[in-house]
Specification:
Layout: E1 5-10, H1 28-33, E2 38-43, H2 45-48, E3 58-62, E4 67-71, H3 80-94, E5 101-104, E6 116-119, E7 124-128, H4 131-139, E8 145-147, H5 154-174, H6 180-197, H7 199-210, H8 217-232, H9 238-249, H10 258-269
Parallel strand pairs: 1-2, 1-5, 3-6, 5-8
Antiparallel strand pairs: 3-4, 6-7
Helix pairs in contact: 3-4, 6-7, 6-8, 6-9, 7-8, 9-10
Length: 270
């Protein structure tokens, strides 16, 4: 059966020759491993907005009033508006597709998620976000987004993949039409997972679900989705995982003998 979990990916990360020098930034983890589970939607903002391959290099510059996207060697060649127009249109299309994640190319002036160089009058500071990815983050704040290079970190990799599967599970649980009952059932299944990621969010979402009758179902769906994915974006800690396991142990306290309880505690603490 074909993979149905839709994940956006920068085209160069998939090995497509779309970079300024006709090169690519192939990630074998993405193409060899994640491709077994995800259906990729390939996007190259530069090419799809009309830039050629090969092409002059581009960069972000700041004049303190706004960020602009210009060619590195000829700043009179300004691509800001065309990129903003493309980004708004493409992200609007993606927002209708139940996208569950996005992998972007690091350091890119269009796709970088963080620490993108922004050139001022004297020096470059790694403070920017690519114009396309910024639109993606603003319009779809619930969406798990990660950079290709950061996926080499086992902890970040696990967190990203977990978030993607969680969001897909949420969408699948709604079966195309959210209802209060479906959202409550989903939340009940994810209580311990949320507790492991962020206990405070677990409590806040619990209070939110308890007041579901105060919202229209469409508003509540969006509100819960945002809260859910914000909580899941916080990496589960060893301490929180231990607390969750101890909480689960409580369900078996009447079924375990003293020696068995001690052994289970030792395993959890270990």
């Amino acid at each position: 059966m074909a993979a149905s979990i839709k994940v956006g990916v920068s085209s160069c990360v998939l090995g497509e020759h779309v970079r300024f020098d006709s090169g690519h930034k192939l990630s074998r983890f993405v193409t060899n491993e994640l491709s077994k589970h995800f259906e990729f939607i390939s996007v190259c903002p530069e090419v799809e907005s009309g830039m050629p391959v090969p092409r002059p290099t581009i960069r972000l510059i700041s004049d303190k009033e706004r960020i602009a996207l210009v060619e590195s060697k000829d700043q009179s060649q300004n691509h800001t508006q065309s990129m903003l127009d493309f980004s708004a249109k493409r992200v609007a299309q993606l927002s209708q597709q139940d996208l569950c994640g996005y992998i972007v190319c690091a350091k890119s002036p269009t796709c970088g998620m963080e620490r993108v160089k922004v050139y001022g009058s004297h020096m470059a500071e790694k403070t920017g976000v690519g114009l396309y990815t910024n639109e993606l983050m603003q319009r779809m704040p619930w969406l798990p987004i990660e950079e290709d290079g950061r996926l080499n970190d086992p902890v970040l990799k696990e967190n990203f993949v977990t978030r993607v599967f969680c969001l897909d599970d949420f969408y699948q649980s709604m079966q195309g039409e959210p209802t209060a009952g479906k959202i409550v059932a989903f939340h009940s299944r994810y209580k311990l997972t949320l507790m492991a990621h962020h206990p405070q969010s677990y409590k806040l979402l619990g209070k939110l679900v308890a007041n579901i009758a105060n919202y229209t179902i469409d508003d509540f769906f969006k509100l819960y989705r945002n809260g859910l994915m914000q909580a899941m974006a916080i990496r589960a800690s060893r301490k929180n995982n231990t607390n969750v396991l101890m909480h689960i142990q409580g369900y078996f306290k009447r079924d375990l003998q003293g020696k068995e309880k001690a052994e289970l505690c030792q395993v959890i603490d270990g």
